[in-house]
Amino acid sequence: MSDLGDFTRISRADSGLCVVTTVRDDATVQASVVNAGVIDHPVTGKPVVGVVAAGQSRKLRNLRRRLRTTLVTKSGWEWVAVEGPTELFGPDDPIVGLDGDALRLLLRAVFVAAGGTHGDWDEYDRVMAAERRTAILVTPERVYSNS
Q1: Whole domain around residue 108: which residue ranges?
Q2: Residue 19: which of 141, 138, 147 has the closest Cα?
Q3: How many CB atoms lie within 10 A of CB 20?
Q4: Confidence at 80, pLDDT banded by 50, 70, 90
Q5: How many domains does the chain have?
Q6: How many angstroms separate the CA atoms of 23 and 124, rounded?
């Protein structure tokens, strides 16, 4: 049985890259490549997988209708999948009790957990706000792999 430690180890081997899937209205699967990382949930403190999505992305539109996803990361022939319910936290998807500053810090935390670095955090924050970026938090219900 795999766990989030395996997800972190394997995703870091390839810059936090993974495939995220969502379900369209016609019940077909939409997939895209994103950077993801394991962080502590800003309210519960429990580990979740975090992804940052542009405000008008298809994955966000799909997730607003069906709050579930699967993420798969790989390195060589080894892979780990995480399935579970999602929460959205962004300018169009507030979480009760968290303000804009909490969102700013969460977007940074997801970026760093996915292996990102930045030389100008103020500029990063401006871009995230301008693009109406949203954090997707995936609570792991199932974590499995081929190892």
Answers
A1: 4-145
A2: 138
A3: 24
A4: very high
A5: 1
A6: 30
For residue 2 the two structure tokens come to: 């795999």
Mean pLDDT of 48-62: 94
User: Following DSSP, what letter does each residue of the chain receive, concatenated?
Assistant: ---HHHHHHHHHTTTTEEEEEEE-TTS-EEEEEEEEEEEE-TTT--EEEEEEE-TT-HHHHHHHHS-EEEEEEEETTEEEEEEEEEEEEBTTB--TT--HHHHHHHHHHHHHHTT---S-HHHHHHHHHHTT-EEEEE--SEEEE--
Q: Indicate which CATH number applies to the domain containing 19.
A: 2.30.110.10
Q: What's at 103, amino acid-wise?
A: L
pLDDT tens digits, 92-142: 998 888 888 999 999 999 999 998 889 899 999 999 999 999 999 999 999
Indicate the burial class of 93 (C-beta count within 10 angstroms; 0-12, 13-18, 19 or more). Answer: middle
